[in-house]
Amino acid sequence: MRKNFLLAVVLIPAVCLCAAGFYYLPPVHDRLAWRVDEAVLRLQYQLHPPAKQVFTPQQQPPTSVAQLVWIATSTPASPTRTLPATAPVLQETPAPSPTLSASPTPLPPQVMLSGVIYEDQHGRWNYCAPSNLAMALSFWGWQGNRDVVGPVLKPLEKDKNVMPYEMVDYVNERTDLRAVLRLAGDVELLKRFISAGFPVLVEKGAYLRDLTGVVSWMGHYQVVTGYDDAGEYFIAQDSFIKPDHKVSYADMISGWRAFNYTYIIIYPPEKEAQVFELLGADADETANAENAALKASAEIFSLSGIDQYFAWFNRGSSLVKLQDYAGASFAYDDAFKVYPTIPEDKRPWRMMWYQTGPYFAYFYAQRYYDVLYLADGTLNAMQSDKNLEESYYWRGMARAALGDTANAVEDFRLSLQYHPGFPPALYQLQVLGVSAP
Fold first, then answer.
1. Do 352 and 391 form a contact (C-beta atoms < 8 A)?
2. pLDDT for 128-166, tens place per residue?
3. For 4-47, how does the pLDDT look when each residue is reduced to its tens digit (9 = 90+)?
4. What is the residue-averaged pLDDT of the chain?
5. Percentage of residues of the chain with pLDDT beyond 70
6. Given this model, what pLDDT does residue 44 score?
7. 199 closest CA partner among 116, 98, 321
């Protein structure tokens, strides 16, 4: 008996060590790691359902002259990329803004574009953006796939999200093609671009089965390549579901609303004039943001429930683009008032993974505690893998504005840990006279 016990004492640790060594072999780890993490996430989300958490804005203005001096001297005056390169921030690069008009030519009742090389997002962490960007680029003959763009868009593989402006920057800076990002799209716009030979990359909300095994709301990209007026549906290359996926006009609008009807057009440089002609008045970014704000305002009073929540949120995001931070903060306040009325199983609790407008609004409206509370709530709801560089960045900004420099530095460094080389965090460390990790 003693001999068997001693044998077990020796063999069990040895077997565990061998199993661990086998698990961490690259081919094995690549296949199994996400399954192990999935099991852990399921348990954590069952114990602490993130949909139960509710953020309540507090509206606390700055209380000292020192805070006002810091905000005036150490932060960008505006959240647009028109600032000097020494003060990087979190928005897209503006494109030229011709003032051409869209063509009134009647559109064909059906168009199906071919040439997109389909890519799924499976077998990788949160690879929706790399897969869809690779598909959109492939239409124009770009040679690459999701694993080419992925390491650039997601330096940390488990990064929860890739922002639209990051995809636009990739196209404009790393390919021979061009890209523009706009808001307030609609069915007619999609049809207009598709009929002219341009696939459209859209960002929308969708209820999909997540890693916890639960069907819940999350952000999602699709490349729209066709439409059929008779059937009232679009054809989308859906990296999560399948190629040539039919999406009804109504479902497209419903999901698209969650992201202010955001869309990206990719095109060769020689087609730029045509793209801006198709955009019409929305070729101008300021006019586009104004149109988006008006569209959201109309929907606020015509919708209810989760759709009204998205409408209020969209109004806030549009006002952020227009640098009306006080107005934006009040719009977000109203969105967060609607949120608790949404049934828990329908709540878009991942919203702050994908859209950071409330951080901009509350911060530049000098409501630093709201930035702190919102960032804390967003990170706490994630249970594990709290890898949202934007939330750490904005929490750091609020802490610095409140005079908590030590913790601000820690947050900026965490932001860089989860997104190596993240320009805004690097800049803020430089402002504070601290070296990057």
1. yes
2. 999 999 999 999 999 999 999 999 998 887 778 899 999
3. 555 555 555 555 555 545 545 555 444 554 444 444 444 444 54
4. 83
5. 77
6. 46
7. 116
Among 268, 274, 270, which Cα is nearest to 176's?
A: 268
Please give the single-letter amino acid code of residue 393: Y
Q: Domains of the chain by range and CATH?
A: 2-43 (no CATH), 52-81+306-431 (1.25.40.10), 110-283 (3.90.70.10)
